[in-house]
Amino acid sequence: MAEQTDLLILGGGTGGYVAAIRAAQGGLNVTIVEKYKLGGTCLHKGCIPTKALLRSAEVFDTMKAAEKFGIEQKSQAVVNFKKIQERKQAVVNQLHKGVEGLCKKNKITVLEGEGAVLGPSIFSPVSGTVAVTFNDKSREDEIIVPKKVIIATGSSPRTLPNLPLDEQTILSSDGMLELEELPESIVIVGGGVIGVEWASLLNSLGVKVTIVEFLDRLLINESAYVSRELKKVFEKKGITILLKSKVEAAELVDGKMVVTIEGKEPVSVDKVMVAIGRSPNVEGFGLQNTSVKYTKKGIEVNEFYQTSEGHIYAIGDCIDTLQLAHVAMKEGELAVAHLLNEDVQPLNYTNVPRGVYTSPEIASVGYVRENVPKDKRVKIGTFNFSGNGKSLVYGESEGFVEVIRDLEADDLLGVTIIGPHATDLITEASTAISMDATPLEIGAAIHPHPTLTEAVQEAALDTYGKAIHK
Which domains does the chain have, with CATH numbers? Predict the structure, then answer.
């Protein structure tokens, strides 16, 4: 017998469970079908576990620098990677229980298994009925007939034909999270967000790291000034960076991975990590049974996340937008607001804050220098963390803040930060852009002293030539 529900969400990752909670708050009966665990990639294979590892690396860096702060250690600090992994998993487990509790609190039905979307059938004259095959094989398959569907199936790590993943010697980020011991050396293929974050944490933990990037700089979506600063800091830390370089092959020879790089000497390492992005999950759950349009880039949606079948929505990594957890959350909220017939303002993706959790951290919101519309006249204000009191107190004075001001409209167009706690500092800029504040309003607001936020204030004032400490 088929079960009825107001909304079925295929995928209980960050976007999926947030959409579910928002819909339940709106009075809908909600069912989530999740084949792995609530929380999805972000909680179990991405944001949270990698940031837990990065935090351990940060603590180790602080301990190595303790003498500079007048703290003498009787013995040298050592890395216990098993305990680092255990702490990471404890953080993930605690948050997973929290998500489960939220779904229970909001009376959301969670079905652990795989869902397949059906076309028009005896159960419904329109597409969207979902057949559920449970992970518990003792349970019979179930048919769910929803009034609305949200597809939130996420994404999977990409690789290259000449670098087949085995998650033992050639690994994706998924495989890296399951390592039981640290390699002595590694080649990371890809200098995007995932690649540089792993390079940062592994280097801090004592691994010899080589980044091989096909393009001419790291973090191609961020400011070229930031890319240069990160490269400089990384190389100072001992990370080898090969730009405009192409990996031709990686072969296991006498227990080592020999990586062949076009036009360069082969590199012999313990592991190879492929970090060239993620592909939307659009196959294997029945989209071909519907008239929903999709390509390898993702499911096609309108500004309200409706597919070509209006009662079926799609959000998160499975559509062609920014693959960020907070973007998936917001898309989920907006999709639910739309299906509840609430007033919805489409998301401006340019003004979504972005973060890279390297050491030093990087964050930005709005435009960067390279993509400011050509019809705008701008003034760019900057301030170095070396001139900030709190940065010097922390012993983290590398990096800068960059603020872009529209000279004609006096609008705040963008802020980029590379330096200590950048991913926290960017919130002020994100809020300012959301509230349509001017750079002068940021500069005029009293910022407590000494704080890192003063660097944002000074850079904002610098767009008017009024920075005090520059």
Answer: 3-63+68-156+280-339 (3.50.50.60), 159-276 (3.50.50.60), 360-462 (3.30.390.30)
